[in-house]
Amino acid sequence: MACSSCSTGKDGQPRGCKNNGTCGTDGCNKLTVFDWLSNMSLPNGQKPFDCVEVRFKNSRKEFFKNTENLTLSIGDVVATQAKSGHDVGVVTLTGELVRIQMKRKKVSPDDKTIPKIYRKASQRDIDIWQKCRDREEEIKKRSREIAISLKLQMKLSDVEFQGDGSKATFYYTAEDRVDFRQLIKDMAKAFGIRIEMRQIGYRQEAQRLGGIGSCGRELCCSTWLTDFRSVSTASARYQQLALNPQKLAGQCGKLKCCLNYELDMYLEALKNFPPSDCKLKTQKGIAFCQKADIFKETLWFSYKDEPATWHTLSKDQVLEILERNKKNEKVASLEEYAADNVEEEKTTFENVVGQDSLTRFDRPKNKKRRKKKRRKPKSKASSNAK
């Protein structure tokens, strides 16, 4: 990810502003929203919406009231209300789109518990904020060492400082319940700040850290996906995928979220498709389904006594045979139906002079020239003897 002012370097980090995902232009940030109403003016008499969306480290976003009627735009750094002290974030959305986002996330604009925006961040606020962010990697490494020394079965995945530097939130993953009371005492003594522990799932951990998926693109959860729906192995079965855990699992170790993207289309196509466990009764014997192609509407069947010989049938042919079997009628054989599906391969191009050869532009190999044997010159004595 990169914006116009900070292109990506060889190490994957922004090369220009060095903000690592908190660029002021908001072009290299995760889960960036495009404000397509920014160039439209409000109707006469309508006041602008008084709530804005603010993004903090990685993908954490919250809504805040603009009680001071500040002129805010996307990319502004603001100081916001926190439980104690203040936090610093970047404005990601303003105007009527915030109302739509709040309705989508079931947050009422009239809720009095919505925190407020204090002011636009001053240079002093930004300096303290950047100084705290620079300490995060060092503190994360030190906190992991403390957790290992206490032999706690947990993994500290990320650290997030509050904007004023008074508190740090540690995100961790664990299989079972962990007693980290001693860990909090040791870290508070070592770092001199208030500590908050927050447990997250493995998918939330992948969302915060980011990465590259097996498709070669950035993870969906760290770029645009905001809700995590449950994914089961039934999604892979419906799509006729091999149940290989190594291929179906993502960076988080769970099933890939993209298995649900095309599931509805497969379920719609399978409504009028014969079941995969159907049996066809013929006079030659009972045939079982070996393979099915939903897109081509084709199924392959083989007899019980000849499992290696497959016969290609269309979806309509299979439904016809099943309908006749319900009436206790047996078809003669599958070969009669399969013969209608044989298509002759038409030759559309014939290679006559070899113009489709992939090596026709290669330089011919130089043949090794045979070295001619040089004859030894005759001596004068031999010539005179003659």
The Rg value, from CA coordinates, equals 35 Å
Q: List the secondary-structure elements in sequence, H or E.
A: EEEEHEHEEHEHHHHHEEEEHHH
H/I helix tally: 11
How is the biggest beta sheet arranged?
5 strands, antiparallel
**Structure class:** alpha+beta
Protein name: PSP1 C-terminal domain-containing protein
Domain PSP1 C-terminal: 115-200
Pfam family, one: PSP1
Biased composition (Basic residues): 365-379
In short:
The chain is built from eleven helices and twelve strands. It has helices spanning 96-104, 123-149, 181-191, 202-209, 220-223, 233-238, 245-248, 263-270, 315-326, 334-339, 380-385; strands spanning 51-55, 61-65, 77-81, 86-93, 117-120, 155-161, 167-173, 194-199, 279-281, 286-293, 298-303, 311-314.
Task: Give the SSE map.
Elements: E1 51-55, E2 61-65, E3 77-81, E4 86-93, H1 96-104, E5 117-120, H2 123-149, E6 155-161, E7 167-173, H3 181-191, E8 194-199, H4 202-209, H5 220-223, H6 233-238, H7 245-248, H8 263-270, E9 279-281, E10 286-293, E11 298-303, E12 311-314, H9 315-326, H10 334-339, H11 380-385
Parallel strand pairs: 7-8
Antiparallel strand pairs: 1-2, 1-4, 3-4, 3-5, 6-7, 9-10, 10-11, 11-12
Helix pairs in contact: 2-3
InterPro entries: PSP1-like, PSP1_C
Domain PSP1 C-terminal: 115-200
Pfam family, one: PSP1
